[in-house]
From TrEMBL:
Membrane topology field: Multi-pass membrane protein
UniProt protein name: MFS transporter
Subcellular location: Cell membrane
Keyword annotations from UniProtKB, A to Z: Cell membrane, Membrane, Transmembrane, Transmembrane helix
Length: 427
């Protein structure tokens, strides 16, 4: 399929960053290409959620093993690092629209092969790994494309925020809806829905976004180019500091979610209590992002980012008192609201990354974030075996706060090194 019909001219998108003034979420939706990206994101996310639930149930039906069923979820995290490091070069060396469409079609193909694989568990889990390898390339390319569509100013920050809000909202309703869906259809039939959502996302991106050239030319092998890009990002002190500030707080933040089931059991809160504990952190995150994105000006969001990240894990210390259900929910809501720090970080990161490196940097960010959350969940389970749930969450709050404070100090040390982010420390 050609990227553009012959004889047509690609008109440049007006630079949103140059429009000036305090931008709002509604301004982002006025950009036609963003509406297509937003709708495609929602469809892809729906497909991922349905496939995770359906595949987990299918594997459990075939094996009767809770371990194998849980492994299907773990495989959604671990291979991210492979795609995010070895294939990141794809995001810069090919036109972004082509990469996004091919990734969607590849994922739809993988799910289709799951349906056709019969009872072969190895094939199902291998295809699950393939999905997780492709996903960071897709997400990193989409993030870099947002900067092309919305500019690298406030509209980019609000666009990223909207995509995160959709992702957090999916955590609230997606798994519940997926469970209801499996009452009506079999797991394999549910996987057909996933194929449809990935294909619909591909169509939206193909028709709703315009063709842009690759950011860099293919000067070497893909893997070598990807690793070279990762080294360039990691060698730059400011980009490395910001990456760590994206990665480390979520590694500690996921601990209460990973241990929600045993904590609900300790509280004798039942399934309703478990559901509330699982929902509290995403609700706090959504509320914090919406408030910061709609009520605060860009300079204010940047000014409060570092104080927020230094404080966001401190509510977990309250678990040392073995709080009941309601206090625990309040602690999680408060901590989740601190995630609004990411709006400031988004602005600094996109300013720091050279355009020709943007796709690889965004892919590395996505892969690292998903991988380190998986590591955080695994470590939380190990620690809880020895220290108990409440002590593990409180320990994550204390150790995480110390790590965040050290990272804040490191990021402050890079302030102004590239002529950007003069609002970061308020100096």
């Amino acid at each position: 399929m050609p990227d553009q019909p012959e004889g047509t001219t690609t008109l440049p998108t007006p630079p949103p960053a140059a429009l000036g003034g305090h931008r709002r979420y509604t301004d982002v939706f006025r950009v036609r290409e963003f509406r297509a990206v937003f709708a495609a994101h929602a469809l892809s996310l729906l497909g991922v959620i349905v496939s995770e639930i359906a595949l987990s149930v299918l594997v459990y039906d075939l094996t009767g093993s809770p371990l194998m069923s849980a492994l299907t979820f773990a495989l959604g995290f671990l291979p991210y690092v492979v795609g995010g490091t070895l294939l990141a070069g794809v995001a810069d060396r090919f036109p972004a629209r082509r990469v996004l469409v091919v990734c969607d079609i590849t994922q739809a193909t993988c799910v289709g092969l799951m349906i056709a694989s019969g009872d072969r568990i190895t094939a199902l889990l291998s295809l699950r790994c393939c999905l997780a390898v492709v996903s960071p390339v897709f997400q990193g390319t989409r993030m870099a494309t947002l900067a092309d569509i919305l500019g690298d100013g406030d509209l980019f920050v609000l666009g990223r925020s909207l995509l995160r809000i959709v992702s957090q909202s999916a955590l609230l309703v997606g798994f519940g809806l997926g469970g209801v869906l499996l009452i009506a259809v079999s797991p394999r039939q549910a996987l057909l829905i996933t194929v449809g959502t990935f294909c619909a996302s591909a169509v939206l991106l193909r028709l709703g976004t315009r063709r842009r050239p690759a950011r860099t030319t293919a000067g070497s092998a893909l893997v070598g180019d990807s690793l070279r890009g990762a080294r360039q990002v990691w060698a730059h002190r400011r980009m490395r500091s910001l990456l760590l500030l994206f990665w480390i707080p979520p590694m500690f933040a996921v601990v209460p979610e990973a241990l929600a089931a045993p904590y609900a059991d300790d509280l004798a809160a039942g399934s309703v209590g478990l559901g509330l504990l699982m929902c509290a952190l995403p609700v706090g995150t959504i509320a914090g992002e919406l408030w910061a994105g709609s009520r605060l000006r860009p300079a204010t969001r940047e000014r409060i980012a570092l104080p927020l990240v230094a404080l966001m894990l401190l509510p977990y210390l309250g678990y040392a008192l073995h709080p009941g259900l309601v206090p625990s929910l309040l602690l999680l809501l408060l901590s989740g609201a601190g995630s609004a720090y990411t709006l400031g970080l988004d602005q600094w990161f996109v300013r720091s990354v050279p355009e020709e490196l943007r796709g690889r940097a965004m892919t590395l960010l996505t892969a690292g974030l998903m991988t380190i959350q998986g590591v955080g969940m695994a470590l939380a389970g190990v620690a809880a075996q020895f220290a108990g749930v409440a002590a593990t969450v409180a320990g994550a709050g204390g150790l995480g706060a110390v790590c965040c404070a050290l990272l804040v100090r490191q990021v402050r040390g890079t302030d102004g090194r590239d002529g950007a982010d003069h609002h970061m420390t308020g100096r």
